[in-house]
UniProtKB/TrEMBL annotation:
Gene3D superfamilies, per the entry: 2,3-Dihydroxybiphenyl 1,2-Dioxygenase, domain 1
Domain VOC: 4-129
Organism of provenance: Niabella pedocola
Name of the featured protein: VOC family protein
Pfam families: Glyoxalase (PF00903)
């Protein structure tokens, strides 16, 4: 297999809240939100995350969608350029409406990061690794 592109589809409960959250964090919109989804382009390789209203996404999932507020579904890692950048991100999450799951911390040799959840509970790890 040789896919042309990969993207993520995540379920949310409130498109306006999701759009406001990711816009406030500085993510680049991918088109104009509509009545079923809002979408963002992330990072240098233009990874796309579509945030669909739960009821719009469910038929395509062919099964139940995990409640990200109560169970871990996936963690997306956002690469930071420095420890200072990690710290700066950590200060932006809560004012935008997210939740810090674990504060910035050093772990292992040369690793530094924190975990946050968006308003729907989707988890992200903002991560800096020396030499990366």
């Amino acid at each position: 297999m040789n896919p042309k592109k990969i993207w993520a589809n995540m379920a949310v409960n409130d498109l306006e809240r999701t759009t406001a959250f990711y816009t406030q964090l500085g993510f680049k919109p991918n088109g104009t939100p509509n009545n079923a989804l809002t979408s963002f382009i992330i990072g240098e390789n233009d990874f796309i995350i579509h945030f669909f209203l739960r009821d719009a996404l469910k038929p395509g999932m062919k099964g139940e969608i995990a409640d990200a507020q109560t169970a871990n579904e996936i963690i997306c890692t956002l690469s930071a350029g420095s420890k200072d950048e990690v710290d700066a991100w950590s200060k932006e999450v809560e004012p935008a409406g997210g939740k810090i799951v674990s504060p910035p911390e050093a772990f292992g040799a040369g690793y530094y990061g924190f975990v946050f959840a968006d308003p729907d509970g989707h988890r992200f790890n903002v991560f800096y690794m020396e030499g990366l």
